[in-house]
Amino acid sequence: MGQTLAQKVYEQHVVRRTAGEPDLLYIDLHLVHEVTSPQAFDGLRAAGRTVRRPDLTMATEDHNVPTLDILSPIADPVSRAQVEALRRNTAEFGIRLAPMGDRDQGIVHVIGPQLGLTQPGMTIVCGDSHTSTHGAFGALAFGIGTSEVEHVLATQTLPQVPARQMAVTVDGELPPGVSAKDIILAVIAQIGTGGGQGHVIEYRGSAIEALSMEARMTICNMSIEAGARAGLIAPDQTTFDFLQGRPHAPQGADWDAAVEHWRTLRSDDDAVFDREVHIDAASLTPYVTWGTNPGQGLPIGASVPDPAQFADESERKAAEQALEYMALTAGTPLREIDVDTVFLGSCTNGRIEDLRVAAALLRGKKVDAGTRMLVVPGSVAVKQQAEAEGLDQVFTDAGAEWRGAGCSMCLGMNPDQLKPGERSASTSNRNFQGRQGKGGRTHLVSPAVAAATALTGRLTAPADLPDAPIPAGV
Amino acid sequence: MDAFTTHTGTAAPLRRSNVDTDQIIPAEYLKRITRTGFEDGLFVAWRTNEPDFVLNQPQYANASILVAGPDFGTGSSREHANWALLDGGFRVVISSRFADIFRNNSTKAGLLTVILPQAEVEALWTAIEADPALPVTVDLQAEQVRYGATTVPFQTDPYTRWRLLEGLDDVGLTERHVEDIEAYESRRPAWLPRALPA
Questions:
Q1: E strand spans, A53-198
Q2: Which one of A117, A147, A315 has the shortest CB-CB distance to B79?
Q3: H-only helix segments in A64-121
Q4: Cβ–Cβ of B194/A35 closer than 8 Å?
């Protein structure tokens, strides 16, 4: 029987296998940020342990960082103390840190690929559930808790058991104005937030192969929202072209050896998946969420559902609770929902391509007078690239705010937050209650829908706008 | 980590599905750098905004077993959620389905997660709503949940059960295999990246 891509990468990293125990898996790259690491470093100190491979470990500051005035000390003393703890810990244990203000700083899942540290066939972990992002390169990448962060720091390994295998096949051509974000929101709506539980998802099919690396990262990023710890895509020429020449990519003969290995990283024809899901790309339209979990999403042309329509009792109850929290009435067309705030950014959609798509729709136009739009590049490098292309000017001319790099309004750990009762269209990954600020209400959308929504002040698809340059399906 | 063998206490019915870790403890509480003292953030939005939230009801205030709807612990990998439940007095969470990372973190933090079929969760909800003082025993050694005249079996994987029963620390267990790790490292391809400045 053949192996899946995920099984191949897993097997290549087994350090030790003994009946009756989990496998011990080697970790090629450990990414660290300020939130989930301080207690792990304390644990090392308490036990008198060191970091086994500081050279396979990299840290950055992202969750707590303000996106304005980033060269001043962080005003919030608790956030500042957490960032300072990371600086002390990385200095003490000899770990490279990209701090605020550094050219390599950014959201941990944006900087790994951008530096070329994320490569096909690697095992990558981080104390962050969106580590699945790196699966876009054909790496086995997954989020871990703080106890496991400590374990990887100390041993560069993790006890693991093999996951079940799921294939999500997306064939066909995406319609104009429909993007990778819409694919993954449709997948989650179809299989539910627990659908991928216990599984690694491999995304495949002609629509996936046609995607850029940025778009593939958007899809793998939200695997966790479908319940899967990891999602991945077989590396191909698009992957190799993205990597070649990046600071940590192999060079010369090493590059050739690496590519030769990377070309073997695909599921065998006779590999068996425990579950298969098929999506027809041509049938997709822009998706938006209406509820308080990422599985509660619908095509933008739909209306807020009536909870009574759900056959399953726990889904019905969840829908009732969601509508109450979101202050929505069943039957309201999604296109008639007004928003206060549009957030473009995050590890899901804070890359250069996302900013380009939004800027193309905003060029020469004005953000709706009653709507605030925040544009937050995922890293300093993305910010610099966008400014070199003049995108910052497009955003500010339209009346949007152009910010520094960080997690920003994806989660309420820094000054960028919704106020109670405010409603956002957000390119981030979670519409949980209070996720973007206490009492805030979140609709998850693609960058194109975010930009179109900013122009009208209500949930809008690019195709709804007269004379809009509709982006090709990406 | 404290060992877990058997626990008897009262149980609180949390009749919600998809309880994500942002609800268990919101991000603002994650700025702390300590490993204890997270009880003030536990379900804080629901405790603050919903007077009839189950943990606001005096008869469930001292519960040490949480009985929740399906897909408990989804979302963020924050182990703070597990710490907050422990700090808030819980030793066990029962649900028909847990998110993978939450469940895995529980095994590291010493919080027992028990998977029961949804019908058994419903039966337990009914029993503890009828009698909030009903003692519920979760016996990891025997893999049973017992209350009143009812005994419900559950399954755990043998290795995890052994670790929890013994209260063992994973790092110490792995360090016994350092020679295997060194042997693996000697075989890694030279072109794999290092995170040192390029």
A1: 57-60, 96-98, 123-126, 140-143, 157-160, 164-171
A2: A147
A3: 77-93, 108-115
A4: no
Give B121's contacts (C-beta < 8 A, 6+ positions apart). Answer: B67, B68, B69, B94, B95, B96
How many residues belong to chain B? 198
B120 touches chain A (CB under 8 A): no
Does the CB of A26 have a partner CB in chain B at under 8 Å?
yes
**Cα A406 from Cα A5, distance rounded (Å):** 32
Q: Is A175 helix (H, G, I), strand (E, B) or coil?
A: coil
Q: Tell me the nearest-neighbour CA distance from A38 into chain B, angstroms.
A: 6
Closest Cα to residue A389, out of A361, A353, A364, A365? A353
User: Which residue in the block uniquely carries the two structure tokens 């929902």?
Assistant: A337
Q: Check: CB of residue A230 under 8 Å from CB of residue A163.
A: yes
Token readout for A24 is: 């011990």
Check: CB of residue B91 under 8 Å from CB of residue B7: yes
Nearest partner of B98 among B2, B153, B165, B19, judged by Cα: B19
Contact at CB, A154 and B69, closer than 8 angstroms: no
Closest CA to A15 of B181, B186, B178, B190: B181
Predicted model pTM:
0.97
Max Cα distance, chain B (Å):
66
**What is the nearest CA distance from B9 to chain A, expressed in angstroms?**
26
| A119: contact with B, CB 8 A cutoff | yes
Compute the distance between CA of residue A111 and CA of residue A126 in angstroms, rounded to an integer: 13
What does the buried/exposed string (b/e) look like for A307-329 if buried means 16 or more CB atoms within 10 Å of the residue's CB?
Answer: beeeeeebbbbbbebbbebbebe
Within the 207-266 window of chain A, which residues sit less than 8 Å (CB to CB) from chain B? 224-225, 227-229, 247-250, 254-255, 257-258, 261
CA distance B33 to B80: 10
| A148 close to A245: Cβ distance less than 8 angstroms | no
Q: Does B78 touch chain A (CB under 8 A)?
A: yes
Q: Quote the tokens at residue B183.
A: 């042997």
ipTM: 0.96
pLDDT tens per residue across span A49-79: 999 999 999 999 999 999 998 888 899 999 9
CA B135, CA A109: separation in Å to the nearest integer? 46
- pLDDT tens, position by position, A137-178: 999 999 999 999 999 999 999 999 999 999 999 999 999 999
A-B CB pairs within 8 A amount to 212
Q: Do A58 and B189 touch (CB under 8 A)?
A: no
